């Protein structure tokens, strides 16, 4: 039904909460205990576990004085764990073992700027060595190799912010030698012998040219990947002897398969393919780098064994728990394996699998405080879009939900958009279901993992059919009597934040309220403010988003931008932003907040001076979620945990609309 109110009525109604009809949205009586936000959104007790190449030790991330650092322990004596990094301001971003079994390399950034600087730490002596320049320089791991146990290849953009040169670095001394200058490529591909094998050029059409050097040292075409296959086709790794190259490959098929290419003859052979989903990961034997198994995810993840020598092992791993073995990592001799099992209504589990004994033992769970919490299952469902696509979705409902009795619902939209939601213990699902909401995550067109036709169906459909998919999923939930038609919120970050803004401006009466976390408000200004290191592959957006190089293309992007439709907004909005966001600049949030304020539309704007594209500090996550919970409680009527001290230690600034939320 169309709402016919003049602007003064709309503003007054929004400010008072009348349009959201709070009288019909009071907290539903429930005997289910509230799960504290601190349990759901604090850092895990242990996460990101890795086994050393020799299989003797484990490393993991765990809080040290409130900051995630790297800990190390013997695999048979976890009680002997000790920290080997001691960061105090911001967590370790990622880390990995070197093949010398003595050094761990880790990355860190400052304030969310995504300029990752790499260091090594001697796990015996504690000495820390800088491996890449910084701050202000972005680096990443290029290659590890058992042939060079003290060394690694590191790529960074110190010379030219647009391009990443490759350096050979000694992790013990920090000595660095330039291996490959990069003056035009989107990436460099190296092999286990630390040799440069390919360089990648983004084509004008949005595809990729994989180049290799000829006998004269000049770059020539090795393989051209057109735009239709570019999202789902890429080399993964060479075998150690260099005779085979393993691809994730959708050429000549819709779903990406694992393919081996003979480097002498060029012949391709398919190792694994699936009718419903793309393969996503390849597990290789540590020494020979020949394939052991590959993972594929449609509704849930499964493994396909490629080497029958480990068939019994994967059968045994499948019996360790009732969840999905998302991560499997064998030691170099393949005798000790680390296995991570994800579950939906219980914390994830880490296991040590002894291949000789064909037995596994549980090491620990990631969040022991949640083991007795009233968690709910996540149900995979497939919803048909209006034009016949299968949308894989994940639904969580309140613990006391009654079949046939709808509740308020939150539509959670993933970022990317070239990513996907999976079956997992998702803190946001558990939190919102615990507060009385149904929660629906939708793999809309453009989500990866469902074949190239599904990805390419999103081309030029930002704010179009991609949004239609979300609406179709909401309508399905309403028809199934899962969701109340007038009590649905849309909530997302990054592309999901853009989707929330689209929901509020393109379909303004569909959602009771919207929550945008560092979302794009104007596609043209977004493209013009991207990081320099994104620019070499920026042409992909011509095919996927719109041609930003032409006047008609820029007009099209303007039409698909929420900023130009601010006057359509009739629902409450919450917007959040990190000051140091390198991908979606703070200006994207600030310009739509300013436009709403100019029109007298109530908007709450939350800002974090020490965050970027994602809220990494647990204090900031807790404070933001306290705001979200109060906002949803007011406009959807779910249960609200008192704020308590959840704002303590946070850098939160409520820069607009403090009067529209009740932080008791």
What can you tell me about this protein's structure?
- The protein is α+β, with helices and mostly antiparallel strands and 664 residues long.
- The chain has a domain at 7-40 and 372-522 and 561-660: 3-Layer(aba) Sandwich (Rossmann fold), CATH 3.40.50.
- The strands form eight sheets. Strands 28-29-31-30-32-33-34-35-36 form a nine-stranded mixed sheet, with helices on both faces. It has a four-stranded antiparallel sheet with strand order 1-2-3-4, with no helix packed on it.
- It is globular, with a radius of gyration of 25 Å.
- The model is unreliable at 1-29 (pLDDT under 50).
Topology at a glance:
Layout: H1 7-16, H2 37-41, E1 47-51, E2 57-64, E3 67-74, E4 82-83, E5 94-97, E6 103-108, E7 117-122, E8 128-130, E9 139-143, E10 151-160, E11 163-170, E12 176-180, E13 187-190, E14 196-202, E15 208-213, E16 219-225, E17 234-238, E18 244-249, E19 257-262, E20 268-272, E21 279-284, E22 291-297, E23 301-305, H3 311-318, E24 324-330, E25 336-342, E26 349-354, E27 359-365, E28 379-384, E29 390-396, E30 407-413, H4 427-434, E31 438-442, H5 452-456, H6 465-479, E32 483-493, H7 495-506, E33 513-517, H8 523-528, H9 540-544, H10 551-559, E34 573-578, H11 586-598, E35 603-608, H12 618-635, E36 652-656
Parallel strand pairs: 30-31, 30-32, 32-33, 33-34, 34-35
Antiparallel strand pairs: 1-2, 2-3, 3-4, 5-6, 6-7, 7-8, 9-10, 10-11, 11-12, 13-14, 14-15, 15-16, 17-18, 18-19, 19-20, 21-22, 22-23, 24-25, 25-26, 26-27, 28-29, 29-31, 35-36
């Amino acid at each position: 039904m169309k709402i016919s109110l003049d602007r003064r009525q709309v503003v007054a109604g929004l400010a008072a909460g009348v349009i959201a009809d709070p009288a019909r949205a009071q907290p539903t009586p429930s005997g289910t205990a509230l799960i504290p936000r601190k349990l759901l959104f604090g850092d895990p007790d242990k996460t990101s576990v890795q086994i050393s190449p020799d299989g003797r030790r484990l490393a993991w991330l765990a809080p040290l004085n409130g900051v995630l650092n790297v800990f190390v322990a013997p695999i048979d004596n976890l009680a002997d764990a000790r920290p080997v990094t001691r960061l105090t301001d911001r967590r370790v971003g990622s880390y990995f073992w070197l093949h010398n079994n003595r050094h761990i390399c880790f990355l860190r950034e400052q304030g969310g700027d995504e300029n990752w600087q790499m260091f090594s730490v001697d796990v015996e002596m504690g000495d820390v060595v800088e491996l890449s320049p910084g701050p202000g320089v972005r680096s990443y791991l290029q290659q590890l190799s058992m042939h060079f146990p003290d060394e690694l290849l590191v790529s960074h953009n110190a010379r030219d912010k647009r391009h990443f040169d490759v350096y050979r670095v000694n992790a013990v001394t920090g000595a660095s030698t330039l291996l490959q200058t990069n003056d035009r490529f989107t990436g460099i591909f190296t092999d286990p012998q630390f040799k440069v094998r390919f360089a990648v050029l983004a084509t004008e059409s949005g595809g990729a040219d994989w180049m290799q050097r000829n006998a004269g040292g000049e770059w020539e075409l090795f393989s051209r990947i057109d735009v239709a296959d570019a999202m789902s086709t890429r080399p993964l790794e060479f075998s150690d002897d260099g005779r085979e190259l393993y691809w994730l490959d959708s050429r000549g098929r819709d779903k990406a398969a694992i393919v081996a290419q003979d480097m002498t003859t060029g012949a391709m052979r398919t190792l694994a393919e699936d009718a419903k989903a793309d393969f996503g990961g390849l597990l290789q034997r540590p020494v020979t780098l020949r394939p052991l198994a590959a993972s594929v995810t449609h509704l849930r993840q499964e493994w396909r064994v490629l080497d029958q020598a480990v068939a019994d092992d994967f059968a045994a791993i499948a019996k360790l728990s009732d969840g999905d073995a998302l991560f499997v990592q064998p030691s170099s001799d393949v005798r000790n394996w680390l296995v991570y099992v994800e579950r939906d209504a219980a914390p994830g589990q880490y296991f040590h699998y002894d291949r000789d004994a064909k037995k596994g033992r549980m090491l620990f769970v990631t969040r022991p405080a949640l083991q007795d919490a009233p968690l709910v299952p996540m149900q995979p469902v497939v919803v048909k879009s209006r034009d016949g696509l299968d949308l894989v979705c994940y639904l969580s409902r309140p613990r006391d939900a009654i079949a046939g009795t709808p509740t308020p619902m939150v539509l959670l939209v993933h970022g990317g958009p070239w990513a996907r939601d999976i079956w997992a213990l998702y803190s946001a699902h558990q939190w919102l279901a615990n507060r009385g909401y149904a929660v629906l995550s939708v793999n809309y067109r453009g989500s990866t993992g469902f074949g190239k036709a599904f990805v390419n169906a999103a081309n030029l459909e930002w704010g179009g059919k991609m949004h239609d998919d979300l609406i179709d999923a909401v309508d399905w939930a309403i028809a199934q009597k899962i969701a109340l038609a007038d009590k649905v919120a849309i909530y997302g970050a990054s592309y999901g934040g853009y989707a929330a803004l689209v929901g509020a401006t393109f379909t303004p009466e569909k959602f009771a309220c919207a929550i945008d976390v560092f979302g794009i408000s104007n596609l043209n200004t977004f493209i013009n403010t991207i990081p320099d290191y994104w620019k070499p592959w920026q042409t992909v957006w011509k095919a996927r988003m719109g041609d930003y190089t032409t006047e008609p293309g820029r007009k099209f992007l303007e039409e698909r931008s929420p900023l130009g439709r601010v006057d359509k907004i009739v629902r409450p909005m919450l917007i959040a932003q990190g000051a140091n966001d390198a991908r979606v600049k703070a200006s994207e949030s600030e310009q739509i907040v300013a436009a709403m304020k100019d029109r007298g539309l109530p908007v709450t704007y939350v800002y974090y001076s020490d965050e970027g594209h994602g809220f990494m500090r647990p204090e900031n996550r807790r404070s933001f979620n306290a705001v979200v919970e109060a906002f949803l409680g007011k406009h959807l009527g779910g249960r609200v945990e008192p704020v308590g001290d959840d704002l303590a230690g946070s850098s939160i600034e409520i820069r607009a609309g403090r009067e529209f939320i009740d932080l008791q």
